[in-house]
Design brief:
Blueprint lengths: L18 E6 L7 E4 L3 H9 L7 E4 L1 E3 L9 E12 L8 H12 L7 E5 L2 E12 L2 H21 L6 E2 L11 E2 L4 E2 L2 E2 L5 E2 L7 H10 L18 H11 L10 H15 L4 H12 L8 H14 L34 H14 L2 E3 L4 H6 L4 E3 L1 E7 L5 H14 L3 E6 L4 H13 L3 H9 L9 H18 L3 E4 L6 H12 L4 E6 L12 H18 L2 E8 L2 E2 L2 E2 L12 H4 L2 E6 L11 E8 L8 E9 L4 E5 L18 H12 L5 E2 H10 L4 H11 L2 E5 L2 E5 L2
Parallel strand pairs: 15-19, 15-22, 16-17, 16-18, 18-19
Antiparallel strand pairs: 1-2, 1-3, 3-9, 4-5, 5-7, 5-8, 6-7, 6-12, 10-11, 13-14, 20-21, 22-23, 23-24, 24-25, 26-28, 27-28
């Protein structure tokens, strides 16, 4: 972007002056060129690109302006992405450190801007480069210099993407693009106004020290204890870390096991980690591994010596005649329990607010952390909606939630969450998820609510709400991964439902359920989590019972959980429109006894909402009694008012949405007559409109 030097003559591009390619749409490879004069001009052009859907730019230009590596002509810059493993959202502290390093000139490069999973650094070239090999060397040098500086600044948890070395058709989202339904709004920062020559960047690769090789494997200290032997045997079974396959997380877990679970000192842990490191691709440097150990000792969630409390394998037993070092006090001695309890008393009981005013007041602020909470309910009582709303509210409040939903598939869960947020019917939501065109909605307001709901889901829920609809092979490992993402944030686990969890085929259902309760008891303390487990309740001769011993197929729930609740309707099997009443059956972590009927929840049709109201007493008659008068007719009338509030709609569509919301066709037609709906024509079909 300045007058080229004589030494750069062989890499002079046929394309002058410097140009970039811009376009929109990932499936539309053709773009158009924009001329850039210098570094400041390039930054201005990038920052002024419009907020197009999938708007992109590329430092490359191609013959015919069609993105094709075979038609590559030249590049005017090297663009490097710094991303977290799995493109996870960038933590605020890491983002702050990157921005500070860019602002004070600590990072190499010309231009810097944030991305959702990291940041992008652009090295502007002094003149366009049309030599493929020369560009490859320059890109490799820039990447190596950037990665080395990140290590020098001790900025971990983020890596430099190596793809630009090979991909001459690479494109990048513009700083203001609408990508995956979310608009990016990244400020573009000029770090250096002087551009780089191709030779200068290539020299960084040659002049810079090569990545430090792992230090020679050091054996554990003489007289290694049984803990070292057991740790080595455990580590030998773990797959080595591979870059691009969550290798950073894999290494952290290995380090955490050594310094926390096996309670090794740093030198013994480093010696074992270096042995395991030989299989990693690429291997970590000794400095990086020491950093992992420091981080694991500081942030690991397991109690010191957790694995030492387990019975050692036969291979780890001391040999006959070997001297045995006196063991440290047991990590789970009664004294340690007292210490932990006193520590919690000093901190006070942490709680996760449910957002249900009456329930939070009864429980002293919400669900205790850590705790095991069991919610029993019959079919169609609203337990899935209740727990979904709780998980979403927790994430919106800054927490992290892991939902293991074995009752509903991922599409159904998505549809329900989107219906609640956008306040649209399930029929509209299903059509909108299957067809990106906005014509599936009947009003402009509905379109705007739907688009806002998609953006909210991606930016607010996406990074912190994890959904799985099939049982993981190793639930403990899955929870460990979510806890690592959560860091110091409160963690909520939701399991729906207990009776759907798999078990040993040799066990009966009661034994399986009790084993899972024991597992959840352990996980709540191990990961400092609040675990909400949904359970079915028994149906007796007088209907579904709401009482402490009503939980299906288990005699251990009431003994293992910290809070047991039931959600039941006065006539759950007769009137699905009756409010569901929440009762606290057992509570161990509250100053006052909250047992009894706390609140009722009325369905908000048609978008799977719930409204908390004063508790409706549960009748004692057969099948739970009739309870209050059925409200289905009024609910149907309210559904029609809301469905037609935006304007006339085809009768077939209204009836379809109504059936999806739980109303029969006859109920809807009767409600329509009661409202005095007028007939009209909508898209050449019979429609309804409000009078």
């Amino acid at each position: 972007m300045t007058t080229p030097s004589a030494g750069a003559e062989q890499t002079r591009a046929a394309v002058t002056p410097p140009q970039i390619t811009v376009g929109a749409g990932l499936t539309r490879p053709r773009g158009h060129r924009l001329q850039v004069v210098d570094v400041a001009d390039l930054a201005r052009v990038l920052g002024e690109q419009p907020a197009d859907v999938d708007g992109w730019w590329s430092p490359h230009v191609w013959r015919g302006d069609t993105r094709d590596g075979a038609a590559w002509q030249a590049a005017c810059a090297v663009a490097l992405d710094m991303d977290r493993d799995g493109h996870a959202a960038l933590p605020d502290e890491l983002a702050r450190r990157l921005e500070e390093a860019a602002a004070d000139g600590s990072l190499p490069g010309s231009i810097f801007h944030r991305t959702p999973a990291g940041a992008r650094v652009v090295f502007a070239l002094a003149e366009p480069c049309s030599d493929r090999d020369a560009f490859d060397r320059a890109a490799a040098g820039a990447a190596q210099a950037l990665a080395a500086q990140l290590r020098e600044l001790d900025i971990t948890g983020i890596g430099v993407d190596p793809k630009p070395h090979r991909d001459l058709a690479r494109l990048y989202y513009t700083p203001n693009a609408i990508a995956k339904g979310v608009r990016r709004q990244a400020a573009v920062l000029v770090m250096r106004r002087a551009p780089y020559s191709v030779e200068q960047l290539a020299a960084l690769r040659e002049a810079d020290e090569p990545p430090a090789a792992p230090a020679a494997v050091q054996p554990p200290r003489a007289g290694a204890t049984g803990a070292v032997r057991r740790a080595r045997a455990w580590l030998a079974k773990k797959e080595p870390a591979v870059q691009g396959e969550h290798g950073d997380d894999q290494t952290f877990r290995a380090a955490a096991a050594l310094v926390r679970d096996f309670d090794l000192d740093d030198e013994d842990a480093l010696a074992l980690l270096l042995e395991w490191n030989q299989g990693c691709s690429p291997p970590w440097t000794e400095q990086e591994l020491r950093g992992k150990l420091r981080s694991a000792r500081r942030n690991g969630k397991h109690a010191p010596g957790a694995k030492l409390a387990e019975s050692p394998p036969r291979s780890a037993q001391p040999e006959a005649g070997a001297s045995i070092t006196p063991a440290a006090p047991a990590p789970f001695s009664i004294a340690s329990v007292l210490d932990e309890q006193e520590s919690r008393l000093e901190r006070g009981t942490e709680r996760i607010a449910t957002g249900w005013t009456r329930l939070d007041a009864a429980l002293g602020g919400g669900l205790a952390v850590p705790s095991l909470v069991v919610l029993g309910a019959p079919p169609k009582a609203g337990k899935s909606s209740w727990s979904q709303i709780l998980a979403v509210r927790h994430v919106e409040a800054g927490g992290v939630a892991y939902v293991l939903d074995l009752e509903n598939g991922p599409r159904r869960v998505l549809r329900q969450i989107m219906c609640r947020r956008a306040e649209v019917g399930p029929g509209e939501a299903a059509r909108a998820l299957a067809d990106r065109r906005t014509g599936v909605f009947t009003s402009r307001e509905a379109v705007e609510r739907w688009n806002a709901a998609k953006a909210w889901l991606r930016t607010t829920l996406g990074p912190s709400l994890f959904l799985e609809c099939t049982p993981p092979a190793d639930l403990e490992a899955r929870v460990a991964g979510v806890r690592q993402v959560a860091g110091d944030r409160k963690l909520l686990l939701v399991v729906d439902s207990l009776q759907k969890l798999p078990g040993d085929p040799r066990d009966d259902r009661r034994t399986t359920i009790d084993k899972w309760i024991r597992t959840f008891e352990r996980l709540r303390y191990q990961f400092d989590a609040t675990i909400l487990v949904i359970s079915e309740i028994r149906r007796g001769r007088e209907g579904y019972a709401a009482r402490e011993d009503a939980f299906k197929e288990s005699g251990g729930i009431e003994y293992g959980c910290d809070l047991a609740m039931t959600l039941n309707r006065p006539a759950a099997d007769e009137d699905t429109e009756a409010p569901a009443t929440l009762r606290v059956e057992l509570a161990r972590d509250t100053e006052e006894d909250p047992r009894g009927e706390v609140a009722s929840y009325r369905a908000v049709r048609p978008w799977y909402g719930l409204e908390e109201v004063d508790p409706v007493p549960l009748s004692k008659g057969r099948r739970g009694g009739r309870g209050p008068e059925p409200v289905k007719a009024e609910a149907a009338r309210e559904f029609l008012r809301q469905r037609l509030a935006a304007g006339p709609a085809r009768v077939s569509e209204v009836l379809g949405d109504g059936r999806a919301a739980g109303f029969s066709e006859s109920t809807l037609r009767r409600a329509g007559r009661e409202l005095g709906l007028a007939s009209c024509t909508v898209q050449l079909k019979t429609g309804w409109r409000l009078p």
